[in-house]
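Re-run with default settings, no changes from the original entry. Doing this only to confirm the output is reproducible before filing.
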Amino acid sequence: MRSEGRLAEADLLLRPATPDDVVELADLYLAAREAAYPSMPRQIHSPDELRRYMRKHLDEPAEELWLAEQGDALVAMMVLQGDWLHSLYVAPGRTGQGIGTALLDLARSRRPRRLGLWVFQSNEGAQRFYRRHGFVEVRRTEGTGPDGNEEQQPDIEMAWPDPGSLAGLRGRIDEIDDRIAVLLAERAALTAQVQRVKEVPGHAGRDAEREQQIAARMAVLAPGLGADRLRRIMHAVITESLDAAEPEPGPGRP
């Protein structure tokens, strides 16, 4: 945790929220939004709706609801949804003390590959805050329509690290590699099932014509790679999948 302004590290406690915190969290959200007007549009939900909203975040396994306390006072809250910083609000009178920075540092430590967020175009103070901490603007929208924000106001998507930087590009590659790993495992499992129903299983039963068809079909989806390169890639994938499908040697066997 990094101290800033008048904030001392020992003064601030960051912890996951519990159901007992829901009422106070909703009150803080309401107060922070009201204090931010007109930089932010007024929120459109009732206190009861906000309490249900906070409780929902506690019940979602892919979401995290964090709060910051100083002494006995709740001073800030943060919601993470997947790789998105959904909400970060500091209580009125507590801004400029490094509390928001402490929560943002926590968010980045929990999402070290990437973190995205949306901010209203009218909220220039929040934009400056996120830029100071390495976020860059990705795009601007009118905020309207079914994919817009609830308030239907112009907004900005921001991301950390810069999606065009080396770190940002590598983070995106890492995410793709993770998806490839899952797909390779799924393909290997299906390959093992195929071997149990083929007349000639294993490497002896490889079908060169089918492998050519696979590469040709994939080349339509990925023309930049080309059929020859995809054939070589899939030859290696099929080889390793067949090796993985072979039974492990038993005790005493070579």
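Residues 167-245 form one domain. The CA atoms of residues 140 and 176 lie 25 Å apart.
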